[in-house]
Amino acid sequence: MTQSPVETSVWHRLLSRQLTRRSALGTVAGAAAAVSLPVAFSDAQATANNGAPVTPDTQKLQPRAFPPFTPIEPTAADALTLPRGYRYQVLAPWGETFTPDGRTLGFNHDFVGYFPIDMLQGGKSSTEALLTINHEYANPMFVGGDTKERTAKQIQAEMQDVGVSVVRVRKEGREWKVVMDPRNRRIDAFTPIELTGPVRGSAVVKGATMVKGSVGNCSGGQTPWGTLLTCEENVDGYQKAWAGSGYEAMHQGWVTEIDPFDPAWTPKKRTGMGRFRHENAAVTLARDGRVVAYMGDDMQDSCIYKFISRDRYNPADRNASRDLLADGDLYVANFGNGSWVLLDYARNKKLQEAKAGDKPLFTSQAEVLADARAAALAVGGTPVDRPEDIEIHPRTGDLYAALTNNSRHGNFFGQIIRWTEKDRDPAATTFLWEVFAYGGPQSGFASPDNLVFDPYGNLWMVTDNSDLGTNPIKAYHGNNAMFFFPTEGPNTGKAYRFAVGPVDAELTGPVFSPDGKTLFVAVQHPGEDSESLDKLTSTFAAKEGTRIPRPTLVAIEGFPGWRQA
User: Fold this and answer.
1) Contacts of 145 (CB under 8 A, 6+ apart)
2) Residue 250 gets which letter from DSSP?
Protein backbone atom coordinates (compact mmCIF):
# COMPACT_ATOMS: atom_id res chain seq x y z
CA MET A 1 0.00 0.00 0.00
CA THR A 2 1.33 3.41 -0.91
CA GLN A 3 1.66 5.77 2.03
CA SER A 4 0.80 9.44 1.75
CA PRO A 5 3.82 11.72 2.13
CA VAL A 6 4.19 13.52 5.44
CA GLU A 7 3.13 17.16 5.14
CA THR A 8 6.01 19.63 5.35
CA SER A 9 5.15 22.65 7.47
CA VAL A 10 6.52 26.19 7.34
CA TRP A 11 8.39 25.40 10.55
CA HIS A 12 10.02 22.28 9.11
CA ARG A 13 11.23 24.22 6.08
CA LEU A 14 12.78 26.74 8.49
CA LEU A 15 14.36 23.88 10.45
CA SER A 16 15.87 22.53 7.27
CA ARG A 17 17.48 25.90 6.59
CA GLN A 18 18.85 26.03 10.13
CA LEU A 19 20.27 22.52 9.83
CA THR A 20 22.07 23.53 6.63
CA ARG A 21 23.46 26.61 8.38
CA ARG A 22 24.65 24.52 11.34
CA SER A 23 26.46 22.11 9.02
CA ALA A 24 28.23 25.04 7.43
CA LEU A 25 29.44 26.20 10.85
CA GLY A 26 30.89 22.76 11.47
CA THR A 27 29.73 21.77 14.95
CA VAL A 28 27.03 22.50 17.47
CA ALA A 29 29.63 24.14 19.69
CA GLY A 30 30.81 26.32 16.84
CA ALA A 31 27.28 27.45 16.10
CA ALA A 32 26.74 28.18 19.78
CA ALA A 33 29.90 30.21 20.26
CA ALA A 34 28.49 33.19 18.43
CA VAL A 35 25.71 33.69 20.95
CA SER A 36 27.27 32.47 24.22
CA LEU A 37 28.38 35.82 25.59
CA PRO A 38 27.78 36.55 29.30
CA VAL A 39 25.41 39.34 30.26
CA ALA A 40 24.65 40.74 33.71
CA PHE A 41 21.28 40.16 35.37
CA SER A 42 19.70 41.72 38.42
CA ASP A 43 18.62 39.65 41.41
CA ALA A 44 15.01 40.17 40.32
CA GLN A 45 15.68 38.60 36.96
CA ALA A 46 17.48 35.62 38.48
CA THR A 47 14.57 35.08 40.84
CA ALA A 48 12.07 35.14 38.01
CA ASN A 49 13.59 32.22 36.09
CA ASN A 50 11.74 28.94 36.64
CA GLY A 51 13.17 28.03 40.00
CA ALA A 52 14.28 29.43 43.28
CA PRO A 53 16.41 32.56 43.58
CA VAL A 54 20.00 31.68 42.80
CA THR A 55 22.49 32.34 45.58
CA PRO A 56 25.85 32.62 43.77
CA ASP A 57 26.91 35.25 41.24
CA THR A 58 26.21 33.42 37.99
CA GLN A 59 28.67 35.59 36.05
CA LYS A 60 31.61 34.34 38.13
CA LEU A 61 30.74 30.65 37.87
CA GLN A 62 32.38 28.67 35.11
CA PRO A 63 30.08 26.51 32.97
CA ARG A 64 30.38 22.73 33.16
CA ALA A 65 31.45 20.67 30.15
CA PHE A 66 30.43 17.40 31.84
CA PRO A 67 27.60 16.40 34.19
CA PRO A 68 28.16 16.26 37.96
CA PHE A 69 26.94 12.63 38.04
CA THR A 70 27.49 9.31 36.27
CA PRO A 71 24.83 9.08 33.54
CA ILE A 72 22.40 6.18 33.78
CA GLU A 73 20.90 3.89 31.16
CA PRO A 74 17.27 3.79 29.99
CA THR A 75 14.94 1.55 31.97
CA ALA A 76 11.30 0.50 32.00
CA ALA A 77 11.27 -0.19 35.75
CA ASP A 78 8.39 0.96 37.93
CA ALA A 79 10.67 3.14 40.05
CA LEU A 80 12.38 6.50 40.15
CA THR A 81 15.90 5.57 39.06
CA LEU A 82 18.80 7.88 39.94
CA PRO A 83 22.60 7.81 39.61
CA ARG A 84 24.72 6.33 42.37
CA GLY A 85 25.06 8.76 45.29
CA TYR A 86 21.59 10.30 44.87
CA ARG A 87 18.41 9.49 46.79
CA TYR A 88 14.83 10.70 46.80
CA GLN A 89 12.05 11.24 49.29
CA VAL A 90 8.32 11.13 48.53
CA LEU A 91 6.90 14.48 49.65
CA ALA A 92 3.35 15.86 49.43
CA PRO A 93 1.65 13.00 47.52
CA TRP A 94 -1.92 13.11 46.23
CA GLY A 95 -4.55 12.70 48.93
CA GLU A 96 -2.46 13.71 51.95
CA THR A 97 -4.03 16.23 54.34
CA PHE A 98 -1.99 19.44 54.46
CA THR A 99 -4.26 22.31 55.60
CA PRO A 100 -5.61 23.12 59.05
CA ASP A 101 -9.16 22.69 57.72
CA GLY A 102 -8.50 19.20 56.34
CA ARG A 103 -8.00 19.79 52.61
CA THR A 104 -5.95 17.20 50.75
CA LEU A 105 -3.33 17.58 48.02
CA GLY A 106 -4.66 17.49 44.47
CA PHE A 107 -4.03 15.02 41.67
CA ASN A 108 -1.39 14.90 38.93
CA HIS A 109 1.28 17.27 40.19
CA ASP A 110 2.91 19.39 37.50
CA PHE A 111 4.73 22.74 37.88
CA VAL A 112 6.43 23.30 41.22
CA GLY A 113 7.24 26.81 42.44
CA TYR A 114 9.77 27.35 45.26
CA PHE A 115 9.16 30.51 47.31
CA PRO A 116 11.68 30.83 50.18
CA ILE A 117 9.80 31.39 53.41
CA ASP A 118 11.81 34.61 53.98
CA MET A 119 11.57 35.83 50.38
CA LEU A 120 9.54 38.96 51.16
CA GLN A 121 12.20 39.96 53.67
CA GLY A 122 14.93 39.58 51.05
CA GLY A 123 15.94 36.08 52.14
CA LYS A 124 16.73 32.95 50.12
CA SER A 125 16.11 30.11 52.54
CA SER A 126 17.05 26.70 51.21
CA THR A 127 15.53 24.80 54.13
CA GLU A 128 12.03 26.27 54.39
CA ALA A 129 9.63 27.47 51.73
CA LEU A 130 6.12 27.79 50.44
CA LEU A 131 5.84 25.41 47.50
CA THR A 132 3.14 25.81 44.88
CA ILE A 133 2.14 22.62 43.09
CA ASN A 134 -0.01 22.62 39.96
CA HIS A 135 -2.53 19.78 39.55
CA GLU A 136 -3.15 19.41 35.84
CA TYR A 137 -6.10 17.00 35.68
CA ALA A 138 -7.80 14.15 37.52
CA ASN A 139 -7.96 10.55 36.34
CA PRO A 140 -11.52 9.21 36.91
CA MET A 141 -10.12 5.72 37.50
CA PHE A 142 -8.43 6.93 40.67
CA VAL A 143 -10.50 9.99 41.62
CA GLY A 144 -14.15 9.93 42.57
CA GLY A 145 -15.05 6.27 42.43
CA ASP A 146 -14.13 4.93 38.96
CA THR A 147 -17.68 4.93 37.58
CA LYS A 148 -18.47 4.20 33.94
CA GLU A 149 -20.49 7.41 33.72
CA ARG A 150 -19.42 10.47 35.66
CA THR A 151 -21.83 11.11 38.52
CA ALA A 152 -22.36 14.50 40.15
CA LYS A 153 -20.33 13.24 43.12
CA GLN A 154 -17.46 12.18 40.90
CA ILE A 155 -17.48 15.48 39.01
CA GLN A 156 -17.26 17.33 42.30
CA ALA A 157 -14.34 15.16 43.41
CA GLU A 158 -12.50 15.86 40.16
CA MET A 159 -13.13 19.59 40.40
CA GLN A 160 -11.69 19.59 43.92
CA ASP A 161 -8.58 17.67 42.84
CA VAL A 162 -7.36 20.09 40.13
CA GLY A 163 -5.85 23.57 40.40
CA VAL A 164 -3.01 24.49 42.75
CA SER A 165 -1.81 23.58 46.24
CA VAL A 166 0.19 26.02 48.37
CA VAL A 167 2.26 23.94 50.80
CA ARG A 168 4.74 24.98 53.46
CA VAL A 169 7.73 22.63 53.73
CA ARG A 170 10.76 22.54 56.02
CA LYS A 171 13.93 20.48 56.00
CA GLU A 172 14.55 18.80 59.34
CA GLY A 173 17.78 16.85 59.40
CA ARG A 174 17.95 14.79 56.21
CA GLU A 175 14.21 14.86 55.51
CA TRP A 176 11.73 17.40 54.14
CA LYS A 177 8.39 17.65 55.93
CA VAL A 178 5.06 19.34 55.22
CA VAL A 179 4.34 21.99 57.87
CA MET A 180 0.84 23.07 58.81
CA ASP A 181 0.43 26.77 58.10
CA PRO A 182 -2.58 29.09 57.61
CA ARG A 183 -1.16 29.91 54.16
CA ASN A 184 -1.48 26.27 53.11
CA ARG A 185 -4.51 26.09 50.83
CA ARG A 186 -6.11 24.74 47.68
CA ILE A 187 -7.11 26.76 44.65
CA ASP A 188 -9.46 24.45 42.73
CA ALA A 189 -12.24 24.51 40.14
CA PHE A 190 -14.56 26.27 42.62
CA THR A 191 -12.28 29.10 43.82
CA PRO A 192 -13.48 32.66 43.00
CA ILE A 193 -11.02 34.34 40.61
CA GLU A 194 -11.08 37.86 39.18
CA LEU A 195 -10.70 38.61 35.48
CA THR A 196 -8.38 41.52 34.61
CA GLY A 197 -7.44 43.13 31.33
CA PRO A 198 -9.33 43.74 28.08
CA VAL A 199 -11.48 40.60 28.24
CA ARG A 200 -12.92 41.47 31.65
CA GLY A 201 -16.66 42.09 31.37
CA SER A 202 -16.72 41.50 27.60
CA ALA A 203 -19.17 39.44 25.59
CA VAL A 204 -16.66 36.63 25.02
CA VAL A 205 -16.85 35.80 28.74
CA LYS A 206 -20.58 36.60 28.96
CA GLY A 207 -19.91 39.84 30.81
CA ALA A 208 -18.09 38.14 33.69
CA THR A 209 -15.70 40.00 35.97
CA MET A 210 -15.42 37.15 38.50
CA VAL A 211 -15.21 33.51 37.44
CA LYS A 212 -15.07 30.12 39.10
CA GLY A 213 -11.88 28.12 39.36
CA SER A 214 -8.57 27.47 37.67
CA VAL A 215 -8.21 24.20 35.75
CA GLY A 216 -5.81 22.54 33.31
CA ASN A 217 -2.91 23.82 35.41
CA CYS A 218 0.14 22.68 33.49
CA SER A 219 3.43 24.49 34.00
CA GLY A 220 3.85 28.04 35.21
CA GLY A 221 6.31 30.66 36.36
CA GLN A 222 7.37 32.87 39.25
CA THR A 223 7.50 36.65 39.36
CA PRO A 224 10.20 38.82 40.97
CA TRP A 225 7.61 40.08 43.49
CA GLY A 226 6.86 36.58 44.78
CA THR A 227 3.69 35.43 43.03
CA LEU A 228 2.87 32.30 41.05
CA LEU A 229 1.74 32.33 37.43
CA THR A 230 -0.19 29.10 36.91
CA CYS A 231 -0.88 28.29 33.26
CA GLU A 232 -4.19 26.79 32.15
CA GLU A 233 -3.69 24.41 29.24
CA ASN A 234 -6.21 21.72 28.26
CA VAL A 235 -9.53 23.21 29.35
CA ASP A 236 -12.11 22.83 26.58
CA GLY A 237 -12.97 19.16 27.16
CA TYR A 238 -14.45 19.82 30.60
CA GLN A 239 -17.51 21.43 29.04
CA LYS A 240 -18.67 17.88 28.27
CA ALA A 241 -16.91 15.94 31.03
CA TRP A 242 -18.30 18.19 33.76
CA ALA A 243 -21.71 18.80 32.18
CA GLY A 244 -24.20 20.25 34.62
CA SER A 245 -21.51 21.68 36.92
CA GLY A 246 -21.71 25.26 35.61
CA TYR A 247 -18.28 24.99 34.01
CA GLU A 248 -17.57 27.74 31.44
CA ALA A 249 -14.72 26.94 29.04
CA MET A 250 -14.10 30.60 28.11
CA HIS A 251 -13.45 31.38 31.74
CA GLN A 252 -10.42 29.06 31.54
CA GLY A 253 -7.33 28.89 29.34
CA TRP A 254 -5.62 31.96 30.80
CA VAL A 255 -2.60 32.73 33.00
CA THR A 256 -3.74 33.02 36.61
CA GLU A 257 -1.66 34.92 39.18
CA ILE A 258 -1.73 33.67 42.80
CA ASP A 259 0.04 35.12 45.83
CA PRO A 260 1.24 32.18 47.96
CA PHE A 261 2.10 34.53 50.84
CA ASP A 262 -1.31 36.22 51.02
CA PRO A 263 -4.43 33.99 51.13
CA ALA A 264 -6.64 37.10 51.32
CA TRP A 265 -5.48 38.33 47.90
CA THR A 266 -7.97 37.22 45.23
CA PRO A 267 -6.28 35.29 42.39
CA LYS A 268 -6.32 37.12 39.04
CA LYS A 269 -6.69 35.79 35.49
CA ARG A 270 -4.47 37.99 33.30
CA THR A 271 -6.45 38.10 30.06
CA GLY A 272 -3.99 40.47 28.41
CA MET A 273 -1.63 37.50 28.14
CA GLY A 274 -4.06 35.78 25.77
CA ARG A 275 -6.12 32.61 25.77
CA PHE A 276 -4.55 29.46 24.35
CA ARG A 277 -3.11 26.19 25.69
CA HIS A 278 -0.71 27.86 28.09
CA GLU A 279 2.29 25.73 29.02
CA ASN A 280 4.41 28.09 31.12
CA ALA A 281 5.40 31.71 31.64
CA ALA A 282 9.11 32.60 31.85
CA VAL A 283 9.35 36.02 33.46
CA THR A 284 12.19 38.54 33.23
CA LEU A 285 12.72 42.32 33.07
CA ALA A 286 13.35 44.48 30.04
CA ARG A 287 16.17 47.01 30.21
CA ASP A 288 13.68 49.76 30.97
CA GLY A 289 12.17 47.80 33.88
CA ARG A 290 9.02 46.53 32.20
CA VAL A 291 8.04 42.92 32.89
CA VAL A 292 8.32 40.41 30.04
CA ALA A 293 6.77 36.93 30.05
CA TYR A 294 7.49 34.29 27.38
CA MET A 295 4.81 31.65 26.74
CA GLY A 296 4.18 28.62 24.52
CA ASP A 297 0.90 27.26 23.14
CA ASP A 298 1.19 23.51 23.76
CA MET A 299 -0.43 22.15 20.63
CA GLN A 300 0.83 20.88 17.28
CA ASP A 301 1.46 23.74 14.83
CA SER A 302 1.01 26.48 17.41
CA CYS A 303 2.98 29.58 18.32
CA ILE A 304 5.31 31.19 20.84
CA TYR A 305 4.30 34.49 22.48
CA LYS A 306 5.62 37.17 24.76
CA PHE A 307 3.80 39.72 26.90
CA ILE A 308 5.33 43.08 27.85
CA SER A 309 3.79 45.03 30.71
CA ARG A 310 2.77 48.65 30.27
CA ASP A 311 4.31 49.81 33.55
CA ARG A 312 7.72 49.26 35.10
CA TYR A 313 8.65 47.05 38.03
CA ASN A 314 9.42 48.79 41.30
CA PRO A 315 11.04 46.38 43.81
CA ALA A 316 10.01 48.69 46.67
CA ASP A 317 6.27 48.51 45.87
CA ARG A 318 4.96 44.94 45.98
CA ASN A 319 1.31 45.99 45.92
CA ALA A 320 1.82 47.85 42.65
CA SER A 321 3.82 44.93 41.26
CA ARG A 322 0.89 42.60 41.79
CA ASP A 323 -1.02 44.64 39.18
CA LEU A 324 1.75 44.85 36.56
CA LEU A 325 0.40 41.99 34.48
CA ALA A 326 -3.07 43.53 34.18
CA ASP A 327 -2.03 45.77 31.28
CA GLY A 328 0.44 45.35 28.44
CA ASP A 329 1.04 44.14 24.90
CA LEU A 330 0.97 40.59 23.54
CA TYR A 331 3.28 39.57 20.67
CA VAL A 332 3.70 36.40 18.60
CA ALA A 333 7.01 35.12 17.19
CA ASN A 334 7.63 35.01 13.45
CA PHE A 335 10.64 32.70 13.01
CA GLY A 336 10.71 33.31 9.28
CA ASN A 337 12.11 36.82 9.73
CA GLY A 338 13.00 36.76 13.44
CA SER A 339 10.42 39.29 14.59
CA TRP A 340 7.77 39.78 17.26
CA VAL A 341 4.40 40.77 15.81
CA LEU A 342 1.99 42.83 17.91
CA LEU A 343 -1.44 41.32 18.61
CA ASP A 344 -3.35 44.56 19.08
CA TYR A 345 -6.62 45.13 17.24
CA ALA A 346 -6.32 48.92 17.19
CA ARG A 347 -2.69 48.99 16.05
CA ASN A 348 -2.41 46.02 13.67
CA LYS A 349 -4.49 46.34 10.50
CA LYS A 350 -4.08 42.66 9.70
CA LEU A 351 -6.29 41.88 12.67
CA GLN A 352 -8.90 44.38 11.51
CA GLU A 353 -8.85 42.89 8.01
CA ALA A 354 -8.83 39.21 9.01
CA LYS A 355 -11.96 37.37 7.88
CA ALA A 356 -13.68 34.03 8.37
CA GLY A 357 -15.51 33.68 5.08
CA ASP A 358 -17.11 37.06 4.47
CA LYS A 359 -17.28 38.01 8.16
CA PRO A 360 -14.63 39.77 10.26
CA LEU A 361 -12.62 37.33 12.35
CA PHE A 362 -12.32 39.93 15.13
CA THR A 363 -14.15 43.12 16.07
CA SER A 364 -12.36 44.01 19.31
CA GLN A 365 -9.20 43.43 21.35
CA ALA A 366 -11.17 41.17 23.68
CA GLU A 367 -11.93 38.87 20.73
CA VAL A 368 -8.27 38.90 19.65
CA LEU A 369 -7.08 37.84 23.10
CA ALA A 370 -9.84 35.26 23.55
CA ASP A 371 -8.66 33.49 20.37
CA ALA A 372 -4.98 34.39 20.43
CA ARG A 373 -4.09 31.35 18.33
CA ALA A 374 -6.24 32.51 15.40
CA ALA A 375 -4.94 36.06 15.84
CA ALA A 376 -1.36 34.83 15.80
CA LEU A 377 -1.82 32.96 12.54
CA ALA A 378 -3.66 35.91 10.99
CA VAL A 379 -0.63 38.19 11.46
CA GLY A 380 2.05 35.72 10.37
CA GLY A 381 3.04 33.99 13.61
CA THR A 382 5.03 30.82 12.94
CA PRO A 383 3.30 27.58 14.00
CA VAL A 384 5.98 25.32 15.52
CA ASP A 385 6.16 21.77 16.91
CA ARG A 386 4.22 21.84 20.20
CA PRO A 387 5.97 24.63 22.11
CA GLU A 388 6.09 23.65 25.77
CA ASP A 389 8.45 25.06 28.38
CA ILE A 390 10.47 28.23 27.75
CA GLU A 391 13.27 29.28 30.11
CA ILE A 392 15.92 32.00 30.33
CA HIS A 393 19.65 31.22 30.47
CA PRO A 394 21.04 32.81 33.68
CA ARG A 395 24.41 33.72 32.14
CA THR A 396 23.55 34.81 28.62
CA GLY A 397 19.89 35.82 28.73
CA ASP A 398 19.15 33.57 25.74
CA LEU A 399 15.70 31.97 25.53
CA TYR A 400 15.40 28.19 25.30
CA ALA A 401 12.16 26.50 24.21
CA ALA A 402 11.22 22.82 24.26
CA LEU A 403 9.33 21.81 21.10
CA THR A 404 8.02 18.44 22.16
CA ASN A 405 7.06 16.71 18.90
CA ASN A 406 4.66 16.89 16.00
CA SER A 407 3.39 13.59 14.63
CA ARG A 408 1.39 15.53 12.02
CA HIS A 409 4.69 16.21 10.25
CA GLY A 410 6.52 13.00 11.20
CA ASN A 411 8.49 14.59 14.04
CA PHE A 412 8.25 12.10 16.92
CA PHE A 413 11.42 13.26 18.67
CA GLY A 414 11.18 17.04 19.03
CA GLN A 415 13.93 19.61 19.48
CA ILE A 416 15.11 22.39 21.75
CA ILE A 417 15.60 25.80 20.14
CA ARG A 418 17.12 28.99 21.50
CA TRP A 419 17.11 32.61 20.46
CA THR A 420 18.80 35.89 21.33
CA GLU A 421 16.84 39.12 21.47
CA LYS A 422 18.32 42.13 19.69
CA ASP A 423 20.77 43.92 22.01
CA ARG A 424 19.85 41.19 24.53
CA ASP A 425 16.83 43.27 25.56
CA PRO A 426 13.68 41.19 26.26
CA ALA A 427 11.55 44.09 24.99
CA ALA A 428 13.19 43.95 21.54
CA THR A 429 11.02 43.24 18.50
CA THR A 430 13.63 41.23 16.56
CA PHE A 431 15.76 38.17 17.40
CA LEU A 432 18.15 35.54 16.02
CA TRP A 433 17.45 31.85 16.60
CA GLU A 434 18.95 28.39 16.13
CA VAL A 435 18.41 24.76 17.08
CA PHE A 436 20.16 23.81 20.32
CA ALA A 437 19.49 20.04 20.30
CA TYR A 438 17.55 17.56 18.18
CA GLY A 439 15.79 14.59 19.79
CA GLY A 440 16.15 11.11 18.33
CA PRO A 441 18.10 7.86 18.66
CA GLN A 442 21.33 9.67 17.83
CA SER A 443 20.97 12.01 20.81
CA GLY A 444 19.30 9.57 23.22
CA PHE A 445 16.31 11.74 24.18
CA ALA A 446 12.91 12.52 22.72
CA SER A 447 9.98 14.84 23.35
CA PRO A 448 11.53 17.58 25.52
CA ASP A 449 9.07 19.20 27.94
CA ASN A 450 9.90 21.13 31.13
CA LEU A 451 13.24 22.91 31.46
CA VAL A 452 15.24 24.42 34.31
CA PHE A 453 18.69 26.02 34.45
CA ASP A 454 21.25 25.79 37.20
CA PRO A 455 23.42 28.86 37.97
CA TYR A 456 26.28 27.54 35.83
CA GLY A 457 24.01 27.73 32.81
CA ASN A 458 23.52 23.99 32.41
CA LEU A 459 20.08 22.97 31.15
CA TRP A 460 18.07 20.22 32.86
CA MET A 461 15.16 18.81 30.84
CA VAL A 462 12.37 16.28 31.41
CA THR A 463 10.60 14.40 28.63
CA ASP A 464 6.97 13.85 27.63
CA ASN A 465 6.79 10.68 25.56
CA SER A 466 3.06 10.26 26.10
CA ASP A 467 0.22 9.17 23.81
CA LEU A 468 2.56 8.27 20.96
CA GLY A 469 1.51 4.68 20.36
CA THR A 470 4.11 2.43 18.74
CA ASN A 471 6.41 5.06 17.24
CA PRO A 472 10.20 4.47 17.44
CA ILE A 473 10.74 6.42 20.67
CA LYS A 474 9.93 3.62 23.08
CA ALA A 475 12.44 1.23 21.50
CA TYR A 476 15.43 3.21 22.76
CA HIS A 477 14.16 5.72 25.31
CA GLY A 478 12.57 3.60 28.03
CA ASN A 479 10.37 5.47 30.51
CA ASN A 480 10.21 9.26 30.57
CA ALA A 481 13.45 10.69 31.88
CA MET A 482 15.41 13.76 32.98
CA PHE A 483 18.52 14.91 31.09
CA PHE A 484 21.42 17.31 31.65
CA PHE A 485 22.84 19.46 28.80
CA PRO A 486 25.92 21.68 28.84
CA THR A 487 25.07 24.90 27.00
CA GLU A 488 28.66 26.08 26.53
CA GLY A 489 31.92 24.36 25.65
CA PRO A 490 32.76 21.26 23.59
CA ASN A 491 29.75 19.21 24.75
CA THR A 492 27.15 21.88 24.06
CA GLY A 493 23.78 20.24 23.32
CA LYS A 494 24.86 16.73 24.36
CA ALA A 495 22.28 14.91 26.53
CA TYR A 496 23.21 13.01 29.70
CA ARG A 497 20.48 10.97 31.41
CA PHE A 498 20.11 11.83 35.12
CA ALA A 499 16.82 10.21 36.16
CA VAL A 500 14.17 7.84 34.84
CA GLY A 501 10.57 7.92 36.07
CA PRO A 502 8.22 5.04 36.89
CA VAL A 503 5.85 3.33 34.44
CA ASP A 504 3.49 5.63 32.50
CA ALA A 505 4.74 8.67 34.44
CA GLU A 506 6.21 12.00 33.44
CA LEU A 507 8.73 13.87 35.56
CA THR A 508 7.55 17.49 35.67
CA GLY A 509 8.16 20.88 37.27
CA PRO A 510 11.87 20.56 38.22
CA VAL A 511 13.10 23.27 40.57
CA PHE A 512 16.27 23.58 42.69
CA SER A 513 16.51 24.97 46.21
CA PRO A 514 18.57 28.20 46.23
CA ASP A 515 21.68 26.43 47.55
CA GLY A 516 21.45 23.71 44.90
CA LYS A 517 21.37 20.83 47.36
CA THR A 518 17.78 19.72 46.69
CA LEU A 519 16.02 19.17 43.38
CA PHE A 520 12.23 19.05 43.64
CA VAL A 521 10.49 17.14 40.84
CA ALA A 522 6.87 16.07 40.40
CA VAL A 523 6.03 12.52 39.35
CA GLN A 524 2.86 12.87 37.30
CA HIS A 525 0.33 10.16 36.33
CA PRO A 526 2.17 6.93 37.25
CA GLY A 527 0.06 3.99 36.11
CA GLU A 528 -2.05 6.16 33.82
CA ASP A 529 -2.40 3.43 31.17
CA SER A 530 -3.79 0.88 33.64
CA GLU A 531 -6.81 -0.99 32.29
CA SER A 532 -8.51 -1.07 35.67
CA LEU A 533 -7.84 -0.99 39.41
CA ASP A 534 -7.26 -4.75 39.15
CA LYS A 535 -4.76 -4.42 36.31
CA LEU A 536 -2.41 -1.64 37.40
CA THR A 537 0.73 -0.88 35.42
CA SER A 538 2.33 0.97 38.36
CA THR A 539 2.16 1.06 42.13
CA PHE A 540 4.57 3.98 42.56
CA ALA A 541 4.14 5.95 45.82
CA ALA A 542 1.14 3.81 46.81
CA LYS A 543 0.02 4.14 50.44
CA GLU A 544 1.14 1.33 52.70
CA GLY A 545 -1.30 -1.54 52.36
CA THR A 546 -2.64 -0.38 48.97
CA ARG A 547 -1.54 -0.68 45.33
CA ILE A 548 -3.01 2.55 43.94
CA PRO A 549 -0.21 4.67 42.37
CA ARG A 550 -0.08 8.28 43.50
CA PRO A 551 1.18 11.40 41.74
CA THR A 552 3.62 13.05 44.10
CA LEU A 553 6.40 15.52 44.62
CA VAL A 554 9.85 14.06 45.30
CA ALA A 555 12.87 15.78 46.85
CA ILE A 556 16.13 14.52 45.33
CA GLU A 557 19.27 14.82 47.46
CA GLY A 558 22.94 14.12 46.79
CA PHE A 559 23.89 17.36 45.06
CA PRO A 560 26.95 19.11 46.57
CA GLY A 561 25.32 22.53 46.21
CA TRP A 562 26.39 25.47 44.09
CA ARG A 563 29.94 26.71 44.34
CA GLN A 564 30.15 30.16 45.84
CA ALA A 565 31.83 32.61 43.48
Assistant:
1) 151, 153, 154, 157
2) G
